[in-house]
Amino acid sequence: NAGVTQTPKFQVLKTGQSMTLQCAQDMNHEYMSWYRQDPGMGLRLIHYSVGAGITDQGEVPNGYNVSRSTTEDFPLRLLSAAPSQTSVYFCASSVGVRGDTQYFGPGTRLTVL
Amino acid sequence: SQQGEEDPQALSIQEGENATMNCSYKTSINNLQWYRQNSGRGLVHLILIRSNEREKHSGRLRVTLDTSKKSSSLLITASRAADTASYFCATHTQGGSEKLVFGKGTKLTVNP
Q1: Residue B18 to residue B39: CA distance in whole angstroms
Q2: Which chain A residue has its CA at the smallest distance from B46's CA?
Q3: Residue A69's closest CA among A47, A91, A50, A54?
Q4: Touching A: B residues 14-73, CB under 8 Å
Q5: pLDDT value of residue B1
Q6: Which residues face B102 on adjacent strands?
Q7: What pLDDT digit, counting tens, does each position of A39-53 carry?
């Protein structure tokens, strides 16, 4: 199993551009989530999904969209990139949240100029 | 607001010493998890402790949970340089929606 994969590893955008961060898992996990990690802020939850077709907002959802059309994929879309979205983005998955191990992807380092 | 808050923010010790990190949280939980993050990498799950448990061990790791004080501690015994990393606690709250909330982490440096 590849586990949780994220693409791209690095990305530089200009303010106002849009892009999609890809996340895929091959463990048949129902629960997937997106976090951003900023220095001194720890991990903050952006959006999460408890199954295909079901998504919900986390702590910091503004400026981001998600969809979950399949169990495997959970893309994160930046609608109009802003410098405040410069961060490292992590995708995670688990069988469920209650008591289950979260498996993290390697991260995408995004810089918005 | 953050549910879990780790303490200290940074810790520097010598190889062979024990390292203790603490996590405090605000609301009742179903479980609490500890994760490790090596520089530039994703988080790796270390150990999970449920609200009805008081202590768990895994190798050189020992986790305690005190629900009356809403706090947990992670002890790494006989530390090694390879333990150098950031450590995060994550809480799943009771009665809440299906999500984990992470603290800001403790940066541990183990000097050889």
Answers
A1: 21
A2: A101
A3: A54
A4: 30-31, 33, 35, 40-45, 48, 50
A5: 43
A6: B90
A7: 877 899 999 999 999
